Amino acid sequence: MQTPDGRECKHYYEDFHRGRNIQECRLVQGNVDSLRWRPSDCSRCPVPDILGANASPHLELKLTIDTRLMGLGRKLEVDAWCTRHRQAVENPFVGCTLCREDRSDALDAFRQALEGDDE
After folding, report:
1. Which of 36, 32, 81 is nearest to 56 (CA)?
2. If you placed Cys at 73, which of 36, 38, 68, 82 could pair as Cys (CB 3.0 to 4.6 Å)?
3. pLDDT one-digit tens code per residue, 34-71
């Protein structure tokens, strides 16, 4: 669904049908450590960019909204987790290192199969 910022995000939900006025980020909904989500948070949120860069079905994201120094401003922090290998992901844009290794092994096998057909 398109966020108030205009980017696509699968975790954003809105419903204005027949007088309803619902806008929510479903990543923040279950997070008790986070402040309440505001539509203005979408303009600074890295999640749509992460989803565009990494389409791994095993990537699980957690968004935490917190205040900055002295309560001025809001900071959005994303934590990533690989459900396949059960480990934290350092860079969610790149993904899990073990998942990348698995893919590279499969790509190497595919390349070898292609090279073998040329002979």
Report:
1. 81
2. 68
3. 999 999 999 999 999 999 998 889 999 999 999 988 87
